Amino acid sequence: xQNMTPIQRLSRTFRQNSSLAKMLIVFTVGGGGLVACSDxxxxxxxxxxxxxxxxDKNKKKRVVVLGTxxxxxxxxxxxxxxxxxxxxxxxxxxxxxxxxxPSVTVGTVEARSIVEPIRNIVRKKNLNVHYWEAExxxxxxxxxxxxxxxxxxxxxxxxxEIVVDYDYxxxxxxxxxxxxxxxxxxxxxxxxxxxxxxxxxRRKIVDCFERASLPNLSDEERKKILHxxxxxxxxxxxxxxxxxxxxxxxxxxxxxxMVKDAVKITLLEATDHxxxxxxxxxxxxxxxxxxRDGIDLKTGAMVVKVTxxxxxxxxxxxxxxISNMPYGMIVWSTGxxxxxxxxxxxxxxxxxxxxxxxxDEWLRVEGTGDIYALGDCATINQRKVMEDIWAxxxxxxxDNSKTLTVKxxxxxxxxxxxxxxxxxxYLKNKQLSSLIDLLKDSKGDSSKESVEVNLEEFKAALSxxxxxxxNLPATAQVAAQQGSxxxxxxxxxxxxxxxxxxxxxFRGEGRHRFRPxxxxxxxxxxxxxxxQTAAQLPGDWVSIGHSTQWLWYSVYASKLVSWxxxxxxxxxxxxRFIFGRDSSGI
Length: 586
Prior knowledge:
Layout: H1 6-16, E1 24-29, E2 32-37, E3 47-49, H2 51-58, E4 61-66, H3 70-78, E5 84-90, E6 94-96, H4 101-105, E7 115-117, H5 118-122, E8 128-133, E9 135-140, E10 145-150, E11 160-165, E12 168-171, E13 176-177, H6 185-188, E14 190-191, H7 195-212, H8 219-225, E15 227-231, H9 235-255, E16 264-269, H10 280-293, E17 296-299, E18 301-306, E19 310-315, E20 322-326, E21 329-332, E22 336-337, H11 340-348, E23 357-359, E24 371-373, E25 378-380, H12 389-396, E26 403-405, H13 406-419, H14 421-429, H15 435-443, E27 452-454, H16 455-462, H17 476-491, H18 493-498, E28 524-529, E29 532-537, E30 541-545, H19 546-559, H20 563-579
Helix pairs in contact: 3-17, 7-8, 13-14, 15-16
């Protein structure tokens, strides 16, 4: 015992005292750092471990989030697992409540009332979250890096380059306005996607009225200056036209009485009706109301060219007649397009022939393993039933009899409906209670228990199911639900690795880690001006009128991201009721 070296004594102490088994002893030998750990076995009972290996083992996974819109912010708000190191990169250091952008354009609410600094949103979370104000211009999926630029100095010669490594990448950069490459649109039209867009439109409206009030102008010149054209009959275009009409009739005509008769609002829509995604009753009501209000609604009119003085349209029907209209301001609201950074990234991952970035049902970018895309920049590429029909049949046919019985089918029925949501939609449209009824219907057999089908009969029964597949709309509601879903997956990633809860892997073994994303439609609103709003809620319930406007107020107030923004927006609404809208254009 007396001849034992200090290392041998230490080893014997660890072996005799199990409570010390996890202790790490750090000491130096010849100036080099060593870590002694009793967990591993060696001749002396001690394992010498490189400190960097311990750091790597305990190192947090880095999650890089690109964008602070609806999808990115929802992901950040719902992420709770402290085992991630989160880096947020966006040229916009705030979240904007975009459904109220049309209200900002006319001063119904102020721009500052609908924005919340992203640092306020994440500062109270029990996570390592860092924000950099920069814009990503390239994603390197192979080396797991993103390349960004920051130009806070405002000098193009002082652009700072930033390269960030990631373990997981969440792409939520949104989309840009789609000009469809129509000549003159980008140069002469106003868009309505960002806070800055709404502020520019607000200044332009007031400038038009001020210019029209100047002396020495002819009546024709005044009519041209005060001709406001809205292109796009979707929810944003319709709401802006309605807000602008209220602004003019309730506020501006009192301040500019000499030019009130020269004001004209025109709404252009390429299809036959506005608000095509709504119930036909809402579409009809909106069109009739706009006609009563004096808004010139032109349907079937496709814009073909825009100059600095005129907008040219082509009639979709009636021989394609082209007409020209002078204008004072154009607001372009006709859809969204893919950002350049996403287009370049799509080529990297083999999606160069697509118009939009495709993900699987778990929001993972197709062709990658650790990159996720949410919101307007991506779309879910739902897998077709007929692509997997043989694999589904084999998985259900557990006795390898080459036929499916009712019992065998029922055992995989839930997994089929969960993996392929179009099946459930098809059954609903056919008014069938289950796939068993579908198989019975295809065979003309009245007894469920006697249903037994082979592969060809199985194919025939499900051949029309994929016709129910639809892309999700590019809305804030979809983006927010996707962000929340992905955050929940990240929160439970370690648990679900060991306890998968998703549907069966029909082309593999076991189960998917998570249930696939499912969008739950909570309804949609279309403000139509004059304190009237149309709403289409779940269950095909339609409500139109003044009472629905108050429902709109309450829902939007509750959806605002913080109590600060709720208080500001409600105070703005109250100020507008009492004093009217601010017409300063600031």
